[in-house]
Write a structure and sequence with these properties.
single chain, 6-stranded parallel β-sheet
Length: 373
């Protein structure tokens, strides 16, 4: 059953949580005996248009004849691929790793904060978040012509109950299956080399990830901050690092593999101060797998993972550097339950996010999609 599986992602590059999930799922499905092929439209060439990508995909579909196709992240300009596959009758499943199906800028965030202006298909209201051409073309295709690119999906995997609830609230007409993302490191031992004053941030150095808020929060703290990641705000990070006392801010750039786990394991707490709602952030799962608690914003999937009552860390309002500073200071102070919260996070991951939990649920979702006519 489902021996030939085609996995599709925007890129094969390991650039974040979606890329890591994509690589891991391909590797582990292969290890289970499945024949796995991949297709990444962003890898073909930067200048390739719809015709070149479509021809390459059609040739692959004809030659490989997959029994199931699983799509992960796609840029807005490549959403037509869903139509291309669905029109040829292949069973199609997609994991919604972000808010692309809800929001044209994929974040449910505008300059004024949390935003649902597109709700109900009012895409022309998104002109303050995306360019006018994208807003108008989306409105025309989806509202006037009825060409919703997601209509061909037989199943949609949502990695958080938060996103499942949001999809139900918006009345999206898809067949959803809630399956938490998995970590390959569920058996990784609790870290024993922590630094009592070390905070770690892992993610893209962008405004929406709240790196500005974090840098502001730690200025008046007696701590060290390890930053793992790269992005458009790298110059700001370097400037802050050079203006701080030596060794206070340690920027390691993007890293993966053993290096990533080595750096992560040195910290006592992970900070994820995102301004927009996260879905099921892999960095939180990774931290929990090592028994590291998390301070995150009281939004979306972060609230779900950390716990509404702070069972596995602490929650703070988005963009509030003072509240973030207080929470991080509390987590670095002995006797404030930091270890207990980290252990609770580890139990949560072991109980919900191992490959042994993910794999049977994934196969069941595939079977449902294949058997639906």
């Amino acid at each position: 059953m489902t021996e030939r599986i085609l996995q599709i992602n925007e890129s094969s590059a390991l650039e974040g949580g979606v890329g890591q999930h994509f690589q891991d799922i391909c590797t582990l499905l292969t290890e289970q005996g499945h024949q796995v092929r991949t297709f990444c439209p962003g890898d073909i060439t930067v200048k390739s248009g719809r015709s070149e990508i479509g021809d390459a995909l059609t040739a692959l579909l004809r030659q490989y004849r997959p029994e199931i196709i699983h799509v992960h992240g796609l840029r807005t300009k490549h959403l037509w691929i869903l139509d291309h596959i669905g029109d040829q009758g292949f069973p199609l499943v997609q994991t919604w790793h972000d808010h692309a199906a809800f929001c044209l800028n994929q974040s449910l965030y505008s300059n004024n904060g949390y935003c649902e202006r597109c709700r109900g298909g009012h895409y022309l209201r998104a002109t303050g978040c995306v360019d006018l051409l994208l807003a108008m073309s989306t409105f025309w295709k989806r509202r006037i012509m009825g060409r919703d690119p997601y209509r061909c999906l037989r199943r949609v995997i949502v990695p958080s109950r938060y996103l499942l609830d949001k999809a139900t609230e918006w009345g999206l007409p898809h067949k959803f299956r809630h399956i938490y993302n998995f970590t390959r490191n569920v058996s990784r031992p609790m870290t024993s080399s922590r630094n009592a004053d070390m905070i770690v941030f892992s993610g893209r150095l962008s405004y929406l990830k709240g790196i500005d808020t974090l840098l502001q929060a730690v200025r008046e703290m007696n701590c060290r901050l390890m930053i793992l990641g790269d992005g458009e705000l790298r110059d700001k990070v370097v400037q802050e690092m050079e203006g701080s006392e030596p060794g206070k801010i340690l920027w390691q750039g993007f890293c993966s593999g053993a290096e990533y786990w080595q750096y992560m394991g040195q910290a006592s707490v992970l900070a994820l101060p995102s301004l927009c709602p996260e879905n099921c952030p892999l960095t939180v799962i990774d931290a929990f797998s090592m028994g590291i608690p998390v301070v995150g914003t009281d939004l979306g999937g972060s609230r779900e993972l950390i716990g509404e009552h702070g069972e596995r860390g602490l929650l703070v309002p988005p963009g509030d550097a003072v509240a973030l500073r207080k929470a991080l200071t509390s987590m670095l102070t002995p006797g404030h339950g930091t270890r207990a919260k980290g252990e609770a996070g580890r139990r949560f991951v072991m109980d919900n996010m191992s490959w042994d939990h993910f794999y049977p649920a994934l196969l069941n979702c595939y079977r449902e999609a294949v058997n639906e006519r």
